[in-house]
Structures are given as structure tokens and as C-alpha cells.
Amino acid sequence: MASDLLGIGTSGVLAHQKLLQTTSNNIVNVNSQGYTRERTLIYTNAIGFGTGESMSERVINQYAQGELRRDTSAFSASSMRFEQLSTVDSLLGDTSNSVGTAITAYFKGFHTANESPADLGSRNTTLTGLGSMVNRFHTLSSQFDKQSDVINDRIDDETLQVNSLLSNINEINKAIVRTQGTGEENLMLYDQRDNAIAQLSQKMDIRTVTQPNGSVLVNMSSGHSLVLDGSVAQFSVIPGDPDSRDKELQLNLGKNQAKIDNKVLGGGLGGLFSARRDLEPTKRELGQLAISLSDAMNQQNRLGMDLDNELGGDLFSLPSSEGLPFAKNTGSGEAMVNFVPGKGSEVTALDYEVSFSSATGFEVFSIGSDGKRSSIATGSTPPASFEVPGHGISIDLSGTPAAGDKILLQPTKQAAAGIEKLINRAEDLALASPLKADKNSQNLGSGIISLGTIGNTGAGSGFANNNLDPNAPQVVKVDDSGNYEVYGADGTTLIGVAPASSKGQNLMAALESPLGGPKVYADPGQSPGYEFSITGQVQANDSFTLSYNKNGFSDNANGLALAELQNKDLVRKSSSSTSGNDKMTFNEAYTGLVVGVGNKTSQANTEMLANKGKLEQSNEIFESVSGVSLDEEAGNLIRFQQAYAASAQVVSTAKTIFDTLLSSVR
């Protein structure tokens, strides 16, 4: 009992010695990672005088600490997302990778070739531009794939670090439970655990619950348990289903397994998944642009004639892609998706899913970038091949699916990497029109025949074997009433008559048989595949002829049409509807792709800066309580030193008094 003077002084010396030790420990650990300021509480003696028990504790505000962890997670997520998106943004901003620049150069080559359509040199320039554009599509698509691989590799690395941190937290929990309340208890264990939890909060958004035994439970913000009393969960990276490259996270706790929704992860891991979700639509938009451009060029080249006096062929190949079956499928159903020639402007940047209600019944859904599914077609097999209306794709089904089976289709994801040029000769560029129109030199009138659009040179048209079919419209005669009689190649086989009231405009659409009867051609753009008009004053017995444009090497009519494709709205907008403004040009599509990534990058940067400011504020609040202030500790050091010296003086005074008492009785 410290009721005597010596006991009082001794208790004071010991108490202030401990206070000095705590202050000294704070000072030397001012720069230690994860260190939390400590303080020692001294209590008065419950009985008598002097100090009683003392207790050392960490100075911490649990609310401020939790807020700091949440802000750390938010900043890490936005920072990681911005880091990945800025890489893609820089890639698209590099002119050496710009598909838009290659498209512009390609069409510029057509303008050059149109100036001298018979010149192989100018044609070769266009052919080189074609190859360069294809290579640019391939390169950019490859760069997108590499960035996806980088993100997947980072996901692997971050997952390994998360597992290590979880195991570390669990081990520290055990050490704290084992030593709490004993002489082996060490506050540094709590600092080490908090530091590990702080690092974990950089990886994902977490919540903690402190237990009475000193351990801490760690949960995901979604509620999944990560660290329990005596047990710890581990993450594993698993292939995506059905696309194995879209890696996913699985949480393993004992024998229990759960696939984690990456949208609720938060932290650096969540930022990586978010960046990957942002990048995926860009791949598909690039593929959509590649298909729309390739198909438009193919269709237009088919409507012209090359330097070999043959109808033009395809300039590009349109790739196919195999469907990806889901892991839970029980049947053997397979699917192949193809692009429908001539319908490239209907192609979207969406994925599709074929869902089977039975072995023959199916439903097709489109899948938006937000994962929302919309039913667009239903049917049954046979037939095994069908076209999806309004989407520019056809699907081939095979095998034997079972009810509940699903197959994912990704037609545009790798389309930019799949297109190839099909011509290696400059002569194969079909710059000339396959038709030429002439008036009879003996005509009395001033009428002039001019070609309109050529819509079809293939099946069902008036073209056959690189020539005009003899039964196709080739001769026009004006009768005594001013009507326009159209004959076959022999000039005597009447096909039909266009009334004088048509004034010679769009004669194929106006053609009737007999005069005043039904139309000869329901769709002249398909059959006979071309249209023409006669302008000016015509006289009875005037005649005009249409013929295959052999040796029309100086003709650039189709070359002009090919060049004009650059200015036509041929790419479907992502938000397209049934309104008239649902298409855009090739350059607008690529600009939209670049701007889209730029906007996401800018938004990620803004979010990161905002989260950074919030994190700095939270850190300041936390440090104001738990951080070491050298000024404060220096003041405490002087104060405790003085108290220690005063306590020692009390002991010295007690000794003097005791010695005086002893000497007085000698």
C-alpha cells in the first residue's frame, strides 16, 4: 500500500517511467508504416495514496478508420480504372494506330484513281491504301486484346496479393487472441493487422467487425465473409462462362464456393473489372465499323466493272465466328454466326444469345453493354440456318441442344481482326460502270439517255457471264404517241412500254406491259438491276441503246460511287431506333469510338481526383487522432520528465526523512 511517502514517490517514478517509454515509442515510430499512436493511462490508487494500475492502448477512432478504408477502396478503384483506360485512350490518340486516318487515306486513294481510272499506278496506290487500312484494323484489334490480357494478368496478381493479405490477417488474429490479456500482449500486432487490412482495402471494398476476444471479422461490402474466427477464405481466378477470356473471381471458404459479382468488388480489383467492362464495347464497335465498311465496299465493287472487262467481286472477306456454349449446357448444340452480305449497315455492336426451350425451339436475345437482354427473334429448327431480321447476321445451328441450353454469339468482338483483303491486283478494282448508254446518231430529237443507279449485277439481274442478258432491256424506241418502248437485245422483243407521261424518268420503274397494265418490274434495283432516264425533247422513232461497257477503261462512274461511300451513313448507331437518324458515316463511327473512350477516361479521371480529395481529408482526420505529432510528443516528453524528476525527489525526500529519524535515535 503506497500510503507512505516512499511508496507514493516510488509509484510516481514507475508510472512516469512508463509514460516516458510510451512517448519515446511514439517518437521513434513516427515514420513507421502503419503505426498508431499509443498512450498510457494512469489511475490513482484505489486505497491510500500514489498511483495505481496503468494501461497502454492505441489511440484510434474506429469510425474515422472505417471511413479511411472505404475512401481508400474508392480511390484505388477509380485510380486503377483510369490507369487502364488512359492506356487505351493514348492508343487511340496515336495517329500511327488511327483507323480513321487509314480510312481517310484509303478513300483519298479512290479519288486519285478516279482521275485516271485506266492508270495502274494510281490504282496501285488505292490497293496499297486498302491493305494499310486492313492492317490498321488488325493492329488496333490486337492492341485491344493485349490490353485485355494485361488487365487479366493484373487480376491474377491482385488476387494472389488479396489471398496473402487474408491469410496474414487470419494469422495475426490468432496471435492476438492467444496473447490478449497476458504478459505477451503486444500492441504492435494490432498495428500489423490494421496495416494488412488497410492494404486489403486498396484491393477491394471491405467491412470489419471487432470481436470481444480481440479478433476482427472481415467481410466484403456485399456481405461475403473473408476472415472468420479461426478460418479464412481464398479467391481463385476462373475462366469466364462462356467466354473463357473474361476471367471471373470465385470465393472459396471450406467446401463452399461462390462466384463473385465483380461489380461489387471495389478497390483495385473492382477497378480492373470496371476497366475491362469499359473496353469490351470498344472492341465490338471497332468490329462493327470494319464489317460495315467492308460490306459496303464489297457491294459497290460488285456493281462495277474492272480492267479485265469483268464484273467486280468482293474486296474484303467477312469473318464468321463460332458460338460459345455455356458450361451448364447438357446438349450438344452448336452455333455459327455469319454476316449477311449487303446488310452491313444493319450490323450492331451487340452480343447475342440463343436460348433453347427444346431440342428444336429457340429464342434469340440481344445483349447490351449493360448486360440487359432483349428478345429479337424466335423460331424452330429445321431450317438450321436463319437470318436475324434487322441485325445483319445469320445463324447456323447444328448438333442436338437440350431445353435450357444457351449459346453466346459475339459476331463483332473479333471482326476487326478477321477481315482480310481479297484482291492483290489493281485491275480488280471495279471503277467503271458495267453499262453504257448511247443515243442513235439519226435521232431527230434532243433527248439524252443517262444511267441512274445500278443496284444488282448478280442473281436475278440482267447481267450474265460478264455481259448483258439478251432478254434484258437494251433498246428504247419512242413511238408516235411519245411513249417509250423498251426491247431486248434483238430490238424486236418488246419488254414493256413506259407512258409518255413518265417524261422519260426512271423508265424501268415506269415500264408497263401492256401500256396501262401492270408494272413489268416490281423492284428495278434488283431486276433488271439498273435504272435509266431520258431527258430533253424526243421525237417519234428516236432510239437509244444500253450495252455492256466493254473497254470502258476511262470510265470512273463506279469509282465515284465507291469514293462517295465515305460520305454515306452506313454504320448503325449504338442507340439506333426506327427513326431516320439511326446511321452514321465511317469516320463518324470511328470518331464516336474514340470520343467514347475519351469520355470514359475523362470521367474516370474526374472520379479519381474527387476520390483522392476525399481520401486526403479522411486521412487527415484519422492522422489527427491516431498519427504521431512530434510537437505534442516533445511537450509530453518534457512534462513526463519533470513529473518523473519530481517523483524521484519525493523518494529522495522520504530517504532523507528516514535517515534523520534513524540518526535521532542513535
UniProtKB/TrEMBL annotation:
Q: Where does the record place the Flagellar hook-associated protein FlgK helical domain?
A: 85-316
Where is this gene product found?
A: Bacterial flagellum; Secreted
User: Which domain of life does this protein belong to?
Assistant: Bacteria
Q: Does the keyword Secreted apply?
A: yes
Task: Name a single GO biological process.
Answer: bacterial-type flagellum assembly
NCBIfam families, alphabetically? flgK_ends (TIGR02492)
Q: What is this protein called?
A: Flagellar hook-associated protein 1
